[in-house]
Specification:
Blueprint: E1 6-9, H1 15-22, E2 68-74, E3 90-95, E4 101-107, H2 125-128, E5 135-139, H3 144-153, E6 157-159, E7 165-167, E8 177-179, H4 181-184, E9 211-212, E10 215-221, E11 224-231, E12 234-237, E13 252-266, E14 272-277, E15 280-288, E16 291-299, E17 307-309, E18 323-329, E19 334-337
Parallel strand pairs: 2-5, 3-18, 5-6, 13-18
Antiparallel strand pairs: 1-19, 2-4, 3-4, 7-8, 9-16, 10-11, 10-19, 11-12, 13-14, 13-15, 15-16, 16-17
């Protein structure tokens, strides 16, 4: 039974956001050997990180320079059962038209052979997916206006028609497009260098002092709320659409308040398409180990890593593990803790 809930935040609403929710990138040298400086006593030399950039956990023989594949996955009841989500390193949930949400699931430590249902990109993905030369979006396609912006941002993508996509015969269109990442990965040109860490990974004493939080409701719109419950030391979605045994268990959930603007076009059903602005800064609530910590998130640019700071200005690290990020609409969205 779910307990009493406390709403911790709701920003100022704007008319455009409300309308969206209701409608559903040889010199010559001397022959003598050059002199080199010796490192100062006690100095340390930098080494390549030995952790996964989207998990913060040890590589254990894995290759952190292999491509990152970000699959756009439907997150409505008609998507059930979602496939492959349980093997994602990190997931971002974003608002789309009609008050529904869509997932951007990051895969690098594992490439499932069946992920989906695969859906289309949105302009919001420009802030979610780094244009770092290592990351590729896996998608069914997108509106021409969105494709132009994704191309301008320098983010590569692969879409239906490329190797690795198939249509399931036991699902209805458009919820039957699936992706085999083991087939897609060899075809992408991104990769070759380890991406920067998506979050600042590390343990923090701040969580032990946080507010108890065993139940969390993240409201995106009147039509969609993602509800989390603590199961052992991880958070699970109690209204998930994932296949049995294939759900995403989050070690940490980040609820980040973001501004939402009009993307400037309508979907095929005539609904305005929203765009969540995932750069700049905003308020945040970080859930880990049954505790909630209030913070501020910041991103210096659309492709920059996410950084968190506490009320006293100290950096807040995210414990290594699997993380789910909620992009909560400012004003119309809310985060309730129970």
């Amino acid at each position: 039974m779910r307990g009493t809930r406390v709403r911790v935040r709701a920003g100022l609403a704007s008319a455009v956001v409300t309308g969206l929710l209701l409608s559903g990138c040889a010199s010559d040298f001397d022959s003598a050997a050059p002199e080199t400086e010796e490192p100062a006593a006690g100095a340390t030399t930098s080494a390549a990180p030995t952790t996964w950039p989207y998990l913060g956990t040890p590589l254990a023989g894995g290759d952190a320079a292999r491509p990152v594949l970000v699959v756009k996955i439907d997150n409505t009841p008609r998507a059930a059962p979602q496939e492959g989500l349980g093997q994602a390193d990190l997931v971002v949930e974003e608002l789309v038209e009609g008050g529904s949400t869509r997932l951007a699931a990051f895969f690098q430590s594992a490439y499932p052979d069946e992920v989906g249902p695969v859906r289309s990109m949105r302009a919001t993905d420009i802030g979610i997916v780094p244009a770092d030369g290592s990351t590729t979006i896996v998608t069914s396609g997108a509106a021409q206006r969105t494709i132009a912006r994704i191309d301008e941002a320098g983010i590569p993508f692969v879409e239906e028609g490329a190797p690795g996509f198939s249509r399931a015969t036991d699902r209805s269109v458009p919820y039957n497009l699936l992706a085999d990442l083991t087939e897609i990965e060899p075809t992408v040109t991104a990769g070759g260098e380890r991406p920067a860490d998506y979050l600042a990974w590390g343990e923090s004493d701040a969580y032990a002092a946080g507010t108890p939080a065993t139940e969390v409701d993240v409201r995106f719109s009147p039509d969609h709320t993602t509800s989390w419950e603590l199961d052992g030391n991880q958070y699970v979605v109690d209204d998930a659409f994932s296949a049995d045994g294939d759900g995403f268990s989050a070690d940490t959930v980040l609820a980040l308040e973001v501004d939402v603007v009009d993307a400037g076009y309508l979907d095929p059903a005539g609904n305005p398409v929203p765009e969540s602005v995932f750069e700049g800064s905003g308020t945040a609530t970080v859930f880990h180990g049954g505790r909630a910590v209030e913070a501020t998130w910041s991103k210096a640019s659309a492709s920059a890593p996410v950084r968190l700071t506490t009320a006293d200005g100290a950096a807040l690290t995210v414990p290594p593990g699997r993380t789910w990020i909620e992009l909560v609409p400012s004003g119309t969205g809310s985060v309730d803790i129970g």
